[in-house]
Amino acid sequence: MRAWESNIRKVVPYVPGEQPKGDRLIKLNTNENPYPPAPGVEKALKNMEIECFRKYPDPTASELVHVLAEYYGVGDDQVFVGVGSDDVIAMSFLTFFNSQKPVLFPDVSYSFYKVWADLFQVPYETPALDESFCIRPEDYYRENGGVIFPNPNAPTGLLLSLEDVEDIIRHNQDVVVIVDEAYIDFGGKSAWS
User: Fold this and answer.
1) What is the pLDDT of residues 117-136, one digit of tens each?
2) What residue segments make up the domains of the chain, in order of their start?
3) Would you say domain 84-184 falls under CATH 3.40.640.10?
C-alpha cells in the first residue's frame, strides 16, 4: 500500500434492495410519494423557462425556506433544506453526531444510517427490534451520542406511537434525537406538532 492510500476512507458502497413488482405495494425506502401531483403542476412545468435549467439553482433555496417557515410558523433561520432526504440525513450526521459515544438506531431500519455513520466515522449501535419488529423505547434509555430512527420504520412500515416517541425523547435530554418522518404521510401522526 502506498502512503497516501492509508488516508483514503474505506467505504462499503450502498447496494439497493429488491424493487418489488406490482401496483398494490408501497416500499417505504424508495422515495415513493402517497400523493398525486398537485393541480397545476403540469401546467407550471410546461410554462417554465427552459433557460433556467442550465444554471445552478439558488443554493440557499431562499424562496422555499421562506414558504416552509411561514407555513410552520417558524423563522427562516429555523428551516434547513437539502437536495433530498439523504443529503439532509448526511448533514444531520455531520452536524449533530460528533461525540465518541455511539449513536443509536434500530438494527432493521433505513439502510443509509449505517452508510453515513461509516462514511463519517460516527460510532453507532443498533438495538434489535422486538419479536414483532417494533422499536423498544427502553433500548434507547442508555448513554449515547444521539438517536435517530424512522417513524414509521423503514422497511417494516411499523409506526411508533407518539407516546413512545416522547418517551425516547424524555430519556435523551442531553443529545439530539432525530425522528425521521419521511413516510409519516402514509399513516400516523407527526411528532412535529
Assistant:
1) 999 999 999 999 999 999 99
2) 42-81, 84-184
3) yes
